[in-house]
Structures are given as structure tokens and as C-alpha cells.
């Protein structure tokens, strides 16, 4: 049976180098090593980009939804490595395919991120990801990334 458990914000901050306002994962609900992960991003009106995107009708930027999917994928990749990648590791985009946006995400929404590993070979991962709000698909994409020591 595969391992399944949650990850709190403190552990997320040990895995990802991102910090406010660019850390887009609040909690990992569950994951299965080498397979899938579900995480959440609570969208609040206090986030700085809402001042300009868009005044009077704030919408969470689509590119940040893709970044949230990528961050969730990087957490799963990090947890799935046979060894601790260390604190001098950074996960980097190698590509985004099939990105689609289905509905706007607004302040007050809880973005649920579901990612599934579809390929891994020689430090290159490919994940299929979806972001939804209240069970309705908001966005989806295939994310390709790698990691490097710095």
C-alpha cells in the first residue's frame, strides 16, 4: 500500500523556497508517493495582485493558478525522491502544455489542486494538474520540470 498523509505549511516551507506573496500552497491534504497529491490554496482579497487584477472585480491570475499547480507538483516530486534533495535544491519549469482555463477564481474561493505524476526519468518530471473551486474545474495543465542544485 502506498503512503498517504498531509503536509502542513511549516513542512511546505522547508520543501519550497517560495515566500509571500509567491508561496501558493497553504496545505497538502494528502499525497501518495510517486503518484498523486491534493493541496489547497486559500484565495484572499488581501493578496497584492488583486489591486491591479482587476480593480472593482478581482480575479486570481491564471498564470498564478499554473504556478500553484507547479508548486504542488514540486512538493510531490520532492517527497517522492529516494533521498532528501537538500536545502540547496530548486525546482524549475521545463514546460507547460495543454493549459486551459474554465472559470474565474475570486477572493474567498478555496482552490483545490490535484496533481498526478505521469512520467519521471533522469530528474525530469511530468505532471497532469487540475485546479478546482467547489468541485468545478477552474484550470488544468501538464507541467514539466526538473531540479537543480544552486
Question: What would you note in describing this structure?
Answer:
With 150 residues, this protein is of the alpha+beta class. The chain has one domain: Roll (Thiol Ester Dehydrase, Chain A). 17% of the residues lie in helices and 44% in strands. The chain has two helices and seven strands, in the order βαββαββββ. It has helices at 9-15, 62-80; strands at residues 4-7, 27-32, 36-42, 89-101, 110-121, 124-133, 136-149. Strands 1-2-3-5-6-7-4 form a seven-stranded antiparallel β-sheet. Strand 2 and strand 3 form a beta hairpin. The mean pLDDT is 92.
List keywords for this structure.
single chain, 150 residues, alpha+beta, Thiol Ester Dehydrase, Chain A, seven-stranded antiparallel β-sheet
Give a topology summary.
Layout: E1 4-7, H1 9-15, E2 27-32, E3 36-42, H2 62-80, E4 89-101, E5 110-121, E6 124-133, E7 136-149
Antiparallel strand pairs: 1-2, 2-3, 3-5, 4-7, 5-6, 6-7
